[in-house]
């Protein structure tokens, strides 16, 4: 839980006087506050010379806790939230959008799985440029120096700076794609926690609403911590997945991550990161490349709407799509 001092800048009522009052009763963090008898604390505040301010601080802290832990929602409320707040974002590729039922859905984590050079990064860059063109912000976590402004320029339709209007459009698009170079999972946690703070504080400008979060690739961050027999690596992996999904759901952001493949039974490739990660993505697409061709084959491995359809019609696991 956060120390009370870390809240001072954002919440003026949690000032040095309030912190000193809490410290005198062994309350130094939000967790300490929750463990304390709130009624008894209010009674102690009544006897203080700054009683009114202290009680306002107690109410402020309770409001902060309530805001960060929203009440449970019933099925109807969840349906209304999905219909009203969880919109679909185009990837920029009609065939991928058709495979996904319109595109990436806000509040969901979509995973692109495939070997090197199968088209995963290309799809990420195309999606980022498409969302940015529609005046929304994109957070792009680049784990392998694969982010390419030149490819963004090609997607936007600007290959040189000779056309002033096109150059201005490209500048606007690139300005909305906020790219972070992230080379280990701890750096990713730092970036995501800062993003969470900014979103809650409404630091992100209203005209630059974040609607897409990309991690290319999640497996390059997670794989190094999975070695050894200890459980810490798997715990960090699941925490990362939980945080990505929580950000997506609470702030109506579509989350897009990439993952590589490893050899499976009978030499058939399968998604990396194992069974523990398998349940994290809401949607999973498998990318593969035809030998000696620029055509990318895409199969649906997992989608929230697939289960009943598969059970009813007993169709193969994935419906392939193709794009070049």
The strand count comes to: 12
Low-pLDDT residue intervals, each spanning 5 or more residues: 308-317
Structural class: alpha/beta
Shape: elongated
Strand order of the largest sheet: 5-4-6-7-3-10-11-12
Mean pLDDT: 84
Q: How much strand content do the residues show?
A: 15-25%
Q: Which radius of gyration do the C-alpha atoms yield?
A: 23 Å
Helical stretch tally: 14
Distance between the terminal alpha carbons, to the nearest Å?
48 Å
Oligomer: single chain
* Sheet of most strands: 8 strands, mixed
In N-to-C order, the SSE pattern is: HHHHHEHEEHEHHEHEHHEEEHEEHE
Helical content class: 40-55%
Short recap of the structure:
It is built from 14 helices and twelve strands. The chain has helices spanning 16-23, 30-35, 38-46, 51-68, 75-85, 94-100, 120-133, 149-156, 164-176, 185-200, 218-222, 232-251, 274-278, 306-313; strands at 88-89, 104-105, 109-114, 137-142, 177-181, 210-216, 254-259, 261-263, 269-271, 283-289, 296-302, 321-323.
